[in-house]
Amino acid sequence: MERDEQLDNLSELLSLSTLTLATTNGEGEPHAAPVYFAADADLSFYFFSAPDSRHGQDLASNPHAAAAFYPACFGWQEIRGVQMHGAACIVEAGATWEKAWELYQAKFPFVTALRSEISRNSLYVFTPSWIRLVDNRRRFGYKREWTLA
Fold first, then answer.
1. Comparing C-alpha atoms, which of 120, 36, 45 is closest to residue 89?
2. Which pLDDT does position 4 carry in this prediction?
3. Cα–Cα distance between 40 and 114 in angstroms, integer?
4. pLDDT, tens only, 17-47
5. Regions of the chain where pLDDT drops below 50
6. Closest CA to 124 of 95, 100, 94, 148
7. How far apart are CA 53 and CA 88, in angstroms?
8. Domain with 20 in it: what CATH number?
9. Helices marked H in the chain — which ranges?
10. Fewer Cβ close by (within 10 Å): the C or N end of the chain?
């Protein structure tokens, strides 16, 4: 699937605010946490978090993660969302960090006033290797999957 088609399939859902990030610790215990995210055209998902948070600690020892985002709904005909597998890591200061910060501020303008709080956290990027779009609005059980290089 071409990148433009992938973005077309996901564009409405990329406007959502929160994704659920799933990680595992060294003992294999799973953990899920909601995080605000901003995505770029390459489908890199950026979020801020404290490195000493449970998922921050998990990612420090095991970058493999899963993520999902979806709007609230109350009927099976409305179920739609995205499931992903990939890896997450801290984004170091530099051009990528600045670009991600601009995306994040554009999506969440209130963070500009929280710059000192943000500075106490790290910017992470989740890079999916596999994506599944689910959309029952198209038909019951509709799924579209693709892998990314």
1. 45
2. 56
3. 22
4. 999 999 999 899 999 999 999 999 889 999 9
5. 1
6. 100
7. 14
8. 2.30.110.10
9. 3-14, 54-61, 95-107, 115-118
10. C
Residue 105, both tokens: 């501020």
Query: Looking at the 3D structure of the chain, how many domains does it have?
Result: 1
pTM for this prediction: 0.91
8 A C-beta contact, residue 16 and residue 69: yes
Q: CA-CA distance, 30 to 60, in Å (whole number)?
A: 15
Asked if 59 and 26 count as a contact pair (C-beta separation under 8 A), the reply is no
Q: Which residues contact 40 (CB under 8 A, 6 or more apart)?
A: 46, 99, 100, 103
| Residue 64, both tokens | 């493999």
**What single-letter amino acid sits at 1?**
M
Whether 79 contacts 16, CB under 8 Å:
no
Query: Which residue is associated with the tokens 């303008």?
Result: 109
pLDDT of residue 48: 94
| Euclidean distance between CA atoms 57 and 54, whole angstroms | 5
The per-residue pLDDT for 131 is 94
CA distances from 67 to 7, 19, 93, 140 (A): 17, 6, 24, 22
